[in-house]
Specification:
- It contains 5 helices and no strands.
- It is mainly alpha-helical.
């Protein structure tokens, strides 16, 4: 690695921008998507399923990103499959 590449790799000034443009998301974002899916299915009086959620997220993801995101969405489903909205919110 030459000196210029090293300096660029150590530049943290655009870290928030890089996170926003990254296909990788935080677990909190995956959980929010699962909750949105569950909310939407309830509003339609349809059954929310793991396969339905994963298919929805797969269709919304770039094909090359799906491999990296599949496990996180699966975990988000498991974490939120019994999600109920708090009526006080």
């Amino acid at each position: 690695m030459d000196n210029n590449q090293f300096k660029r790799s150590q530049d943290f000034s655009n870290i928030e921008s890089d996170k926003a443009n990254s296909p990788n998301q935080s677990m909190e974002e995956y959980n929010k998507k699962a909750q949105e899916y569950l909310r939407e299915m309830r509003s339609r009086n349809e059954e929310a399923t793991r396969d339905g959620f994963l298919n929805t997220m797969k269709n919304a993801s770039p094909p090359d990103a799906w491999e990296n995101q599949h496990k996180a969405y699966d975990d988000a489903w498991e974490n939120n499959k019994n999600y109920q909205e708090d009526p006080d919110e």
